[in-house]
Amino acid sequence: MPDRSPAFTPRPLRTARLDLLPLHPDHAAELAPVLADPALHTYTGGEPLDAPALRERYARWAAGSPDPRVVWANWAVRLREAGALVGTVQVTAGPGPVAELAWVTGTAWQGRGIATEAAKALVTEVLRQGMPTVVAHVHPEHAASVAVASAAGLRPTPHWQDGERRWERTKEPAGA
């Protein structure tokens, strides 16, 4: 029998300060300058993309994974009080019962708990939708992302991938 991940459907999410909007290629124009700082790529590699390249990336993501066992769910993060997009968050669900989280907040918006608030919302949503395991891969020297993972309820594991430590949270069984 093929390994299938549970269905996972991205939907708009709202937290105390944030609107998480399913990412659309039209968000690229506003997000390109927010994500333009090369320092955002210190631990993940790559370089900032201009608006047309970011639009192409977002269109690929919106089209979905070529692997039917995998769901790509991406959100633009809007800080309501500023009326501005300030970053993105994503979940890659599957194959199997695992969802991987990732986040990025523009440099100008860091240090305000935005990534933490968004990551907590995603962990809650992932578990609510039936994915029993949530993971994130975090570079051990990226103190801000270590703090986000910890605040979102993920715990470090002994597992490493490409120089990043796997952080994990497993849904508690009912009645535990």
Structural class: alpha+beta
Ranges where pLDDT stays below 50 over 5 or more residues in a row are 1-6
Number of strands: 8
Bin the helical content: 25-40%
Overview of this structure, please?
This is GNAT family N-acetyltransferase. Helix content is 25%, strand content 31%. By secondary structure, the protein is an alpha+beta fold. It has an 8-stranded mixed beta sheet with strand order 1-2-3-4-5-6-8-7, with helices on both faces. Strand 1 and strand 2 (18-22) form a beta hairpin. Helix 1 (28-34) packs across helix 2 (51-63) and helix 3 packs across helix 4 (143-151). The chain starts with 12 loop residues before the first strand and ends in a 6-residue tail after the last strand. Residues 1-6 have low confidence and may be disordered.
Give a short overview:
The protein has about 180 residues and is of the alpha+beta class. The protein has 4 helices and 8 strands, in the order ββααβββαβαββ.
SSE blueprint and pairings:
Elements: E1 13-14, E2 18-22, H1 28-34, H2 51-63, E3 71-79, E4 84-93, E5 98-105, H3 114-128, E6 133-138, H4 143-151, E7 155-161, E8 164-170
Helix pairs in contact: 1-2, 3-4
